[in-house]
């Protein structure tokens, strides 16, 4: 950058006329554009473009219809947050996206697999210790989605958060923050959590009704919370009214069998 | 004829199987020892032979003759491994040796005899060299042809050129049956019965007569008896020495200095590998510390190592060793004085093992690079991917594999911890099924569990689980069983009959091999019971060995958070008394409050269970437990395990 400015000053001195200055400015602009492109090696490589898909009931809730690459999404630590994380990851993971989870030792990976997350593309760094920031930055370079937990514990400050968000934006990676993350583009939180299927001594846990509330800079204030089943009795997430998720699950099985 | 026959020098170590086994088992050489296979003595030491032990004796008889006999097992691989230093020692003096079998080396006599100036001198040199290098006693024989040379070595003779037929003639025909690989006892017995008791007598026969009367093998024996060896020794090509090592002087106790040394070493290794057109997929990193400790670890890599990848791994390994030595001992004897890199497994550089888990695309490569960078930051055991394995607890169904290790390398806890289960499972899939199936789910539910011992009850449970979706989880409870029945009825209308619920859920979602195999298992059992005759073609390859179905496993949904260590909890009833188990499937009172980890009490909103879990009864410290699902205020649900009188949180439905 400084040498480009220097070129402008030196070149402007001998030729003050308008046409050549315009040409010169255009040339400089092209050069800068070319340079910035060479610095950033085309972050979006997937064909599906700038939005990672999510499951249908959540997609309706999200403004972009999915997880926009480069965005930062916070999932506050309330009951249901981990299931919400799995539900958000499932579609993208099934589509070939790599997911990294930093600083979360007790992740229920069986639940992740049930939600549809591909475990072979789910990289875990359970104990980053003091290197949480460095590890997250390294993962932001290679993964499609990076979930960070325990940022407050590891002493991540506001400047670090901005740095991570900028890195995510530059690399086209979705940064999911588990826990409080001031400055996130979006915040998805669960409320009115209610498990179904348990009785006094009978039944078993089957599904959970939650109200998923979306807040954030890019979201119109006053958006109503969406009632969802998370997990639903046949999938990671479903609409509350659509309690007949089982036939859907079965047809997929049947289809698969027919298709071999 | 002697012109065409090569002079062969045979180096023979007597009773090599015993020598090798005794070395491996650290049996002192003055104790009589024998290697026994199939209750017969295969080989015995000289001391044992002096006490009357002979080859071919029964074990009991051998021990009767020699009560202090050490009985050793046979291991041909071990014999070959242990013989390798002997071969290397002989090779130092006389290149071009042939390892006939462990314990016997043959080489062309011309070279060493000419060099050391005589057969006697060459034999002495070889015996001394082997004894000095390896401590193994050897005998040398020289004769025309390998067969005669081996016989000469057994007697410690040098047969003069041309005297070989004369040397062989008085020997008995049993000498033809000395090779352990070839069984000529029948031929030898026949020859003896025919009165051909010596090799000379056999040699006097016409070759045509031998061929027409005794067959092809006898023709070979006839040639041997006449002193005509079929072939000269095959010279062995010494294996390429690819390992590189460096002496660190002064010894290194700092990671950065060691990494600097490792860089040069890795470059040397890769130059050597590139020179042979090889790439390394398993790298052994060995180090010797100043205190004389030998450290060794093998790194497996899914893809061939690059020089920088090698440097990284050496650095992580040294880091681990050096930090460990610093933490375990304060005076720091752990400085590394020698570093050695051994390519344990190599592949041809052109034939790289790409696409282990499908195509390694650009995104996968990028992700792999990022993960390796994290490993460089935190160490190799910091980045994991998970593999689903068998188990009943949410925690034990997941195995974490460090990045770079092969995800399918071993079957993990599934085969390690539960051998009886798999046998039970074989029974369940096999012809024993119909009887158990006829009893239906209720019978199966009552036949609780893996704990009652043999495979039979387990078959029941497995079948019941196949018949009702959640029977596996609700084993042993009265109410849930009813509940399960109702569910399974509604379920059958939608799902293929008899499919466990969680299995249907998993289908098509999880690509891990375990789940796919399990799915196949569910299908086979099901089909065998309900639709016996027509085998519908599923288009999928048959699963050869179905994994166990783990009856008693909780069905989906699984807890989204599994604490690495179970958290202690207290369950209190309405009157404030602690809730405990009066029976494996009965609580003393309905729970009212839950206190997790001495936190604030939470009001219980709903609960289900307890579901008894008894497994690994064959392990001493295995404790029976019962599981309860509890939903408390605020929409949190927990999976509790009652074990050893207390309650533990083993899963949080987060």
What are its keywords?
heterodimer, A: 260 residues, alpha/beta, nine-stranded mixed beta sheet, two-stranded antiparallel sheet, 24% strand, B: 654 residues, four-stranded antiparallel beta sheet
Q: Could you walk me through the main structural features you see in this protein, from its secondary elements to its overall organization?
A:
The complex is a heterodimer of chains A (260) and B (654). Chain A is of the alpha/beta class. Chain A has eight helices and twelve strands. The longest helix of chain A has 22 residues, at 18-39. Chain A is elongated. Chain A starts with a helix and ends with a helix. Residues 1-15, 37-47 and 243-260 of chain A have low confidence and may be disordered. Mean pLDDT of chain B is 72; it is low at 410-543. Chain B is built from 22 helices and 21 strands. In chain B, the strands form six sheets. Chain B has a six-stranded antiparallel barrel with strand order 14-17-18-19-20-21. Chain B is elongated, with a radius of gyration of 34 Å. Chain B has 654 residues and is of the alpha+beta class. The interface between A and B is large, with 76 and 80 residues.
The low-pLDDT segments of chain A are 1-15, 37-47, 243-260
Secondary-structure element order of chain A, N to C: HHEHEEHEHEHEHEEEEEEH
Q: Estimate the strand proportion of chain B.
A: 15-25%
Q: What strand line-up does the widest sheet of chain A have?
A: 5-4-6-7-3-8-10-11-12
| Largest interface, C-beta within 8 A | A-B, 76 and 80 residues
Secondary structure tally, helices of chain B: 22
Instruction: Outline the biggest β-sheet of chain B.
Output: 6 strands, antiparallel, barrel
* Rg result of chain B: 34 Å
Give the neighbour order of strands across the main sheet of chain B.
Answer: 14-17-18-19-20-21
User: How far apart, in Å, are the first and last alpha carbons of chain B?
Assistant: 88 Å
C-alpha Rg of chain A (nearest Å): 23 Å
Oligomer: heterodimer
Tertiary shape of chain B: elongated
Structural class estimated from helices and strands of chain A = alpha/beta
The termini of chain A sit apart by 58 Å
Strand content of chain A: 15-25%
The number of strands of chain A is: 12
- Helix and strand composition category of chain B: alpha+beta
Secondary structure: helix percent of chain A: 25-40%
Q: Return residue spans of chain B where pLDDT drops below 50 for at least 5 consecutive residues.
A: 410-543
Helical percentage of chain B: 25-40%
């Amino acid at each position: 950058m400084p040498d480009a400015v220097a070129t402008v000053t030196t070149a402007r001195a001998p030729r003050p006329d308008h046409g050549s200055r315009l040409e010169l400015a255009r040339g400089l602009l092209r050069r800068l554009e070319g340079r910035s492109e060479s610095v950033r090696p085309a972050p979006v490589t997937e064909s599906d473009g700038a939005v990672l898909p999510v499951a249908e009931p959540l997609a309706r809730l999200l403004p972009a219809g999915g997880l926009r690459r480069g965005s930062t999404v916070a999932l506050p630590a309330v009951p249901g947050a981990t299931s919400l994380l799995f539900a958000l990851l499932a579609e993208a993971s099934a589509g070939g996206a790599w997911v990294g989870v930093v600083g979360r030792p007790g992740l229920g990976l069986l639940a992740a697999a049930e939600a549809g997350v591909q475990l072979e593309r789910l990289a875990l760094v359970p104990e980053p210790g003091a290197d949480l920031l460095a590890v997250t930055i390294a993962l932001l370079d290679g993964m499609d989605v990076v979930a960070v937990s325990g940022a407050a514990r590891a002493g991540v400050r506001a400047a670090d958060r901005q740095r991570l968000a900028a890195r995510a934006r530059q690399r086209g990676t979705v940064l999911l923050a588990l826990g409080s993350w001031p400055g996130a583009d979006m915040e998805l939180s669960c409320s009115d959590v209610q498990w179904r299927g348990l009785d006094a001594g009978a039944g078993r846990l089957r599904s959970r009704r939650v109200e998923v509330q979306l807040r954030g800079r890019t979201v119109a204030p006053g958006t109503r919370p969406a009632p969802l089943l998370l997990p639903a009795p046949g999938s990671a997430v479903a609409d509350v009214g659509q309690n007949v998720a089982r036939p859907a699950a079965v047809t997929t099985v049947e289809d698969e069998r027919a298709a071999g | 004829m002697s012109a065409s026959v090569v002079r062969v020098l045979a180096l023979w170590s007597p009773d090599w199987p015993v020598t090798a086994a005794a070395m491996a088992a650290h049996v002192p050489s003055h104790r009589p020892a024998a290697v026994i296979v199939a209750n017969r003595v295969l080989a015995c030491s000289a001391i044992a032979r002096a006490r009357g032990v002979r080859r071919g004796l029964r074990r009991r008889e051998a021990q009767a003759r020699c009560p202090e006999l050490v009985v050793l097992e046979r291991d041909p691989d071990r014999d070959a491994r242990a013989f390798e230093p002997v071969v290397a020692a002989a090779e130092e003096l006389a290149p071009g040796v042939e390892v006939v079998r462990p314990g016997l080396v043959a080489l062309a006599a011309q070279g060493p005899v000419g060099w050391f100036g005589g057969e006697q001198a060459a034999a002495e040199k070889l015996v001394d060299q082997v004894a000095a290098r390896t401590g193994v006693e050897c005998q040398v024989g020289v004769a025309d042809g390998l067969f005669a040379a081996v016989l000469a070595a057994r007697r410690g003779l040098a047969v003069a050129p041309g005297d070989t037929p004369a040397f062989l003639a008085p020997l008995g025909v049993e000498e033809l049956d000395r090779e352990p690989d070839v069984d000529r006892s029948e031929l030898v017995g026949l020859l003896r019965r025919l009165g051909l008791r010596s090799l000379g007598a056999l040699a006097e026969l016409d070759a045509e007569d031998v061929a027409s009367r005794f067959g092809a093998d006898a023709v070979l024996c006839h040639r041997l008896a006449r002193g005509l060896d079929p072939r000269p020794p095959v010279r062995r090509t010494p294996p390429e020495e690819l390992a590189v090592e460096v002496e660190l002087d002064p010894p290194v106790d700092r990671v950065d200095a060691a990494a600097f040394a490792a860089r040069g070493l890795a470059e040397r290794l890769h130059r050597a590998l590139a020179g042979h057109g090889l790439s390394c997929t398993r790298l052994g990193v060995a180090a010797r510390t100043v205190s004389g400790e030998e450290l060794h670890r093998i790194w497996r890599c899914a893809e061939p190592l690059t020089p920088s990848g090698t440097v990284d791994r050496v650095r992580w390994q040294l880091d681990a060793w050096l930090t460990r030595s610093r933490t375990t001992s304060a005076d720091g004897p752990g400085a590394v004085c020698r570093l050695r890199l051994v390519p344990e497994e190599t592949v041809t550089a052109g034939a790289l093992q790409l696409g282990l888990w499908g195509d390694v695309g650009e995104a996968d490569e990028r992700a792999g690079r990022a993960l390796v960078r994290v490993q460089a930051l935190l160490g190799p055991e910091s980045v994991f991917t998970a593999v689903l394995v068998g188990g009943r607890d949410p925690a034990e169904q997941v195995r974490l594999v460090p990045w770079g290790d092969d995800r399918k390398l071993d079957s993990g806890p599934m085969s390690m911890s539960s051998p009886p289960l798999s046998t039970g499972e074989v029974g369940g899939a096999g012809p024993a099924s119909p009887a158990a199936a006829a009893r239906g789910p209720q019978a199966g539910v009552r036949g609780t569990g893996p704990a009652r011992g043999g495979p039979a009850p387990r078959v029941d449970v497995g079948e019941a689980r196949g018949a009702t979706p959640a029977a596996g989880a609700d084993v042993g409870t009265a109410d849930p069983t009813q509940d399960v029945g109702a569910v399974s009825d509604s379920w059958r209308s939608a799902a293929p009959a008899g499919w466990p619920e969680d299995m249907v859920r998993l289908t098509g979602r999880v690509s891990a091999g375990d789940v796919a195999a399990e799915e196949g298992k569910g299908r086979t059992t099901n089909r065998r019971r309900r639709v016996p005759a027509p085998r519908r073609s599923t288009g999928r390859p048959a699963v050869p060995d179905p994994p166990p179905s783990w009856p008693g496993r909780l069905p989906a949904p699984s807890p989204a958070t599994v604490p690495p260590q179970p958290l202690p909890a207290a369950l209190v009833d309405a009157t404030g008394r602690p809730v405990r188990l009066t029976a494996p499937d009965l609580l003393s009172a309905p729970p009212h409050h839950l206190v997790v980890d001495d936190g604030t009490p939470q009001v219980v909103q709903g609960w289900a269970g307890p579901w008894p879990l008894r497994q690994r009864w064959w392990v001493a410290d295995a404790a029976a437990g019962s599981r309860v699902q509890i939903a408390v205020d605020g929409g949190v649900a927990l999976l509790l395990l009652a074990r050893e009188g207390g309650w533990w949180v083993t899963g949080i439905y987060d």
